[in-house]
Amino acid sequence: MQADETEMRLRGLMLGALDGDAAAYRRLLADLTRYLRPYFARRLSPAHAAHAEDLVQETLLAIHTRRMTYDPTRPFTAWLHAVAHHKFVDHVRRHAIRPTVPLDDDSPIFASDDSANAANRLDVEAVLGEVSPRTSDLIRQTRLEGASVTEAAARHGMTETAAKVSIHRGLKSLMARFAGGEK
């Protein structure tokens, strides 16, 4: 099912639920459960995989208690993603665990693969232009092209540790810059 079709169907169910349609609300919660389980399972390490169901239930409860905050003029899936993301962050903080999802894999619940889009490639190049050329190349090789840190380090004649530090600092700098804080 296309993301647009999913959005329309879930949005329709949510609007029905907000209008008091109990059947639409039950269907919405059942459908959301089907999407949320893999969303959380992808983000948890195998050691914490048992928490996925708890996160699903916490998210459904948050959707129930905050359903009146949903703005019907906005996409439902964006609102859902925000609620689910916040529940995941709360869980990580509460359990003092580190998420196992790479920083570049914070895909939304209803992600579609549009990596072939030329505009996206230009955006990535513009973002990577904010760090040094060597760091940019290391990030590109390891995060976009699938090279290992060892391979990327060897191509640049540096140690694996130095490459890891450079990648980490580059990603941290980009996150700070595009989250509103300049570094």
Automatic annotation (TrEMBL):
Keyword Iron-sulfur in the entry? The reply is no
- Keyword annotations: DNA-binding, DNA-directed RNA polymerase, Sigma factor, Transcription, Transcription regulation
User: Which InterPro entries does the annotation name?
Assistant: RNA_pol_sigma-70-like, RNA_pol_sigma-70_dom, RNA_pol_sigma70_r2, RNA_pol_sigma70_r4_t2, RNA_pol_sigma_r2, RNA_pol_sigma_r3/r4-like, WH-like_DNA-bd_sf
One Pfam family of this chain: Sigma70_r4_2
Q: Does the keyword Flavoprotein apply?
A: no
Record's superkingdom?
Bacteria
RNA polymerase sigma-70 region domain: residues covered: 28-96
Q: Which residues form a coiled coil?
A: none
GO cellular component terms, alphabetically, are: DNA-directed RNA polymerase complex
List, for all copies, the residue spans of the domain called RNA polymerase sigma factor 70 region 4 type: 123-174
Instruction: Family membership, please give it.
Output: Belongs to the sigma-70 factor family. ECF subfamily.
What is this protein's record name? Answer: DNA-directed RNA polymerase sigma-70 factor
Q: Which gene encodes it?
A: sigD
